[in-house]
Amino acid sequence: MGTALNLVLILLLLTTAVLAVTARDLLAAVIIFSVYSLIMALMWQRLQAPDLALTEAAVGAGVTTVLFVIAIFKTRRREEE
After folding, report:
1. Each residue of 4-61: pLDDT tens digit?
2. Residue range(s) defining the domain that contains residue 7
3. Could you count the other beta carbons within 10 Å of the beta carbon of residue 39?
4. Helical H runs in the chain?
C-alpha cells in the first residue's frame, strides 16, 4: 500500500511539474505550482520529515503563491498591435 501511494504521488508530481511549465496562462501556472508544492509537502511527510513538510506547505504553497499572484496582478499586459 505504501509503495503504491508513493508511486501515485510521484506521478502527480511529474504531471503537475509538466503542466506548470507548459501552461500558457500565468495564473494557471501559479495555481498548478501551488498544487505541486502541496503534493511535495505530502511526500516529505511520507518520508518522515515533518519539519520539511510544514516548511514546504507554508512557504511553497502559501507565501510563494501569494507573492506570485500579487506580481501577476500588478503587471500589465501589452496588447499586440
Report:
1. 999 999 999 999 999 999 999 999 999 999 999 999 999 999 999 999 999 999 998 8
2. 2-74
3. 20
4. 2-22, 26-46, 50-55, 64-74
pTM of the model: 0.86
3 state DSSP class of 55: helix
**Backbone CA torsion sign across 12, 14, 15, 19:** positive
Within-domain flag for 45: yes
Place of cell 499586459: 77
Q: CA 27, CA 24: separation in Å to the nearest integer?
A: 9
Q: Total structural domains in the chain?
A: 1
> Between vectors from CA 27 to CA 24 and to CA 31, what angle results, nearest 5°?
105
What is residue 6's predicted lDDT score, i.e. its pLDDT? 92
The rounded Cα 51 to chain-centroid distance in angstroms is 18
Q: Report residue 73 as a C-alpha cell.
A: 496582478
Instruction: With respect to residue 79, please indicate whether it lies within any of the assigned structural domains.
Output: no
